[in-house]
Amino acid sequence: MKPSRFSYFLARSVDEAVQLLAEQGEESRVLAGGQSLMPLMNMRLARPSALVDLNEIGTLAYVRPWDGGVALGAMTRDADLEQASLAAERLPLLVEASRQVGHPAIRNRSTVGGSIAHADPAAELPAVMLALDAELEARSASGSRTIAARDFFQGPFETSLVPGEILTEIRVPGLSPRSGSAFMEFARREGDYALVGVAAVVALDEDGTIASARLGLCSVGQTPVRPTAAESLLKGKRPAKDAWQAASEAVVASLNEPPSDIHGSADYRRHLAGVMTRRALALAAERAERNR
C-alpha cells in the first residue's frame, strides 16, 4: 500500500508551520505522531496534497502547571504523559487514560494533540478532555483562539478546527480537593480500541454528598459523548449503588447511535456503557473519599 503523491515540509516553529499551511491550501495536513494519519494515507482514505511535519517543534512538547491542573503541548507524546509526575499528582485521570492508548510502541510516537485533533470517537483522550472540561488553543497565520472541549468535536474525525489551524495546547483545570476520578474501558485485546470507555470525575461536598459529577464516553457515538443528563441526576445524592444505577440508566437512554459492527452490536455497547459507567463512578467516588 502506498499513499498518493504529496509535498512534504518540515516546520521548525509554530509560525513557520501555520505559514506553510496557509501557503499550501485547504488540502494540506499536519503530521504529528502519524499513527492514525499514515495508515489512512497508505490505504488512500486520506489524500492530502501536502504534509507539514511538526516533529521538530520542541516547544510544543511539555507538561506544565496551569490553573491547579496542567497545560499540555500538542506534541507531547502519550508515553511522556503516562510518565509525567505533575499530571499524576494533579490530574491522575490523564495518566490513567494515556496508559490505555494502544501499545508502548504506539504511545512513544502518538501525541496528545494528534489524538484530539484526529477526533476518532473511539479514542480515549478526547472523551477524557470532555470529562475534565479542558480548553484547547488553536493557532493559524491570522492568530490564535481558545475552544472549549465541549465545542470541539463535531462528528467522526471532524472538529471545529478550520483549514490552516494547528492545535497547539490543551489546558486542563485542576479538580477540587474532595474529587476523585477513574477511567475504565473494555476491549477485545489489550491495545485494541475499546468497545466502550468511560471517564468519570466525582466531587464530594463537605457533608459527603455529590457536589458534581462529570462523564466522558468513547466508542458509543459519532463523537466522544458527555452525558449531561446522567451527571445532573447525581448532584446532591449520596455516593451509593442506587445513584450509580440511576446514572447508568440515564447513560443507556441517552445513547441514540452507538456503532454496531462485528465486534459488538449497538445494544451490546449500550449495555456495556451502563456497566462501565457504574463501575467508573463508584471507583471515582471511592478515590474522592480518600481525598476528603
Task: Describe what this molecule looks like in 3D.
- The chain has 292 residues and is an alpha+beta fold.
- It folds into three domains: 7-53, Uridine Diphospho-n-acetylenolpyruvylglucosamine Reductase, domain 2 (2-Layer Sandwich); 58-172, Uridine Diphospho-n-acetylenolpyruvylglucosamine Reductase, domain 3 (2-Layer Sandwich); 179-290, Enolase-like, domain 1 (2-Layer Sandwich), CATH 3.30.390.
- It is built from twelve helices and 13 strands.
- It has helices spanning 14-24, 37-42, 78-82, 85-90, 92-98, 104-107, 112-118, 124-131, 149-152, 228-234, 241-254, 266-290, and strands at residues 7-10, 28-31, 50-53, 63-66, 69-73, 135-140, 143-148, 153-155, 158-159, 166-172, 179-186, 196-204, 210-218.
- A five-stranded antiparallel beta sheet has the order 4-5-10-6-7. A three-stranded parallel beta sheet has the order 1-3-2, with helices on one face.
- It is globular.
